[in-house]
Amino acid sequence: MRKTLLMCSLGCGLSFLALLIGAEESADQSGDEAGDRYAELVERDGKFDEVFVLPGTDMGRFDKVFLWGAQFEYRDVGPAQKTRGTMLSTHKREFGISEEDRKKFEEAVGEAFRKEINKGKQFTVIESIDEVDASTLIMRGALVDIISRVPPETVGRSDVYLSSIGAATFVIELIDAKSGSVIALVAERRSIDTLNARSGLASVPANSASILGDIRRWSGSLARRLRGRLDDVIGEKVST
Fold it and tell me: Which domain holds residue 28?
């Protein structure tokens, strides 16, 4: 995962954001010019696989976080199938996701992520764009290249045992509400493993409830790491 790919994932919509928050930078930018927002970001070691920061950013002036929407992009592996004849009827390892299941996935991710971010000790999460001001850090997230390893139901009675229910690339932009500048970009590709696989416990059949639980735990884990890092850097200054 490189910065150019992350930029393609989240680059759209920043001009609209600038209009909403009255950012100092011009909101009238073409796609190529919007890419310049990332030009000064420098790669750093961090708690995620990919971390880019804007050197010299004073994190100490932020005490609020606004969660600005989220994007979900799914890998095209063909349409979702309702059933398949037998467990051996296909060798596929990635399966289409129905609109209903996509909605459940996105709701579970959003719920778990917001719950964890709201536990921040060094900042307050605000709910309305009207509360955004110069001390606000805008957090914009995406899950891209989402895949499912959950096969469709089989005809007849058959349990499905899974160690991983899917994978996705987690991407977060941190935006200075005062200027509209992107001050950090982080990303990581992670498998969405089942609780039993992570715990080394005996396998149990997967079902809708257990799958949603695994998605919430996975999302909460990512958000917890991000929240912890934000708590660490609030009050610090990113080195040049």
Answer: 3-233
Give the residue from 162, 164, 181 showing the smallest Cα distance to 173.
Answer: 181
Name residue 185's beta-bridge partners: 52, 173
Residues facing 164 on adjacent strands: 193
Q: Say how many domains are in the chain.
A: 1
In a domain, 133, yes or no: yes
2-60 pLDDT, tens per residue?
554 455 455 544 444 554 555 554 444 444 445 567 888 999 988 899 999 999 888 88
Q: Rounded CA gap, 207 and 32, in Å?
A: 45
Q: Is residue 125 part of a domain?
A: yes
Contact status, residue 9 vs residue 144, Cβ threshold 8 Å: yes
The rounded distance, in Å, linking the Cα atoms of 101 and 99 is 5
User: What are the Cα distances from residue 24, in Å, to 15, 95, 185, 232?
Assistant: 11, 45, 20, 27
Q: What is the DSSP string of 204-219?
A: ----HHHHHHHHHHHH
Distance between CA atoms of 78 and 82, rounded to whole angstroms?
Answer: 13
Tell whether 240 is covered by a domain.
no
Residue 183 maps to a domain? yes
The values of phi and psi at residue 51, to 5°, are: -135, 125
58 by DSSP, 3-state: which? strand
User: How many Å apart are CA 141 and CA 117, to the nearest integer?
Assistant: 12
Task: Judge whether residue 186 has pLDDT over 70.
Answer: yes
The residue-averaged pLDDT of 117-123 equals: 94
